[in-house]
Specification:
single chain; 162 residues; endopeptidase fold (from Nostoc punctiforme); five-stranded antiparallel β-sheet; three-stranded antiparallel β-sheet; 4 helices; globular
Length: 162
Amino acid sequence: MKNILYDRQKSVAYAKQWAMGRNPHFYNFDKMGGDCTNFASQCILAGCDVMNYTKDVGWYYNSPNDRTASWSGVEYLYQFLVKNHAGAGPFGTETDAGGIQPGDLIQLGNKDRFYHTPVVVEVEKNAIYVAAHTYDVYLKPLSHYFFSRIRYLHIDGARAWK
């Protein structure tokens, strides 16, 4: 495996380009539970340009019917990122608000489950701004969301086959 630097600028540029619209190369999951994690995965892909094609437990998208649950499912993406210790594709760690950078992810939830995955596009001293799909936003302050649980996912990098 070869380590790849995660290009945060490319991830944020992708978020800016597609936050208020849909890239026609990817299915819109709005009517199938939401498009937020699909959009977050697209942003991560823009920043690392590598997928993990391991059936069922990897992270990839070829079509709406040929993808992993981690591509579009909130909890599945979290599990893939934090448990991808040696495989291809992106990997990350859970952190706190101070460890977040543009291109990272935030997941919001209630007492039962995490349900939304915005992408961090800007960080200032006391404010985090995000982009997201389902209810399309760009540069929305995180403080304007209502949630009872939050987790911060820092994308550490990615790996590709040599």
